[in-house]
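JOB MANIFEST
job_type = single_chain_structure
chain_count = 1
residues = 215
[input]
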Amino acid sequence: KTDSDDDGKGDSEEGITDTDGDGLIDAIESSIVDSDSDGVVDELDAVNNGDNDSDGDGLSNLEEITSGTDPLDADSDDDGVNDGKEITNGTDPLDADSDNDGLNDGDEETNGTDPLDADSDNDFLNDGDEITAGTDPLDQDTDDDGLGDNYELTTDVGNGNLYITDPLNPDTDGDSQEDGAEVQNGTDPTDPNSKTSCLIFNPFCWFATFVDIFL
């Protein structure tokens, strides 16, 4: 049988199909030869020179070979951001989660977080953990109670952090005194029966009471 391009597939088998749409039918374009050494065989390469961008991701085939990305896949790591944009942004087009924070680069773009910084708001909780917890990865104190999200979600007895409080509720125990004020006053923000009567001057206590009465 006739095999014009010597690729092991007969002309009759390849017929008049033109896979890459370059005007040359597959029967005369090899499926095993890469004439321009750009990582794409001639049969799939619409323009047989390294400047061609076969997958339309903004990187030429030769640039993709240099980067280690797939010249026939616009998003080599399947993270929702194409390879060319990743190279421009400085993220890794071969790693779906460039900063290893539990969110892939595409999700970080959607959330507005930094795909190159595991902790975008610098609150000692990485962005992925914040999304899981429901806290805001762009706000150190999601519920604005005066305690950072990390402080609310963890304990550190040695540093005086004794309680796990709700980072989405400024008054975890519902006693009308915000968690931050309770910590400042030395009361238990998880116990509604542990609160100060504001008999001494403490601005945090008075503020919490004022908010409860007047706002």
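[summary]
The chain has eight helices and no strands.
The mean pLDDT is 84.
exit_status = 0
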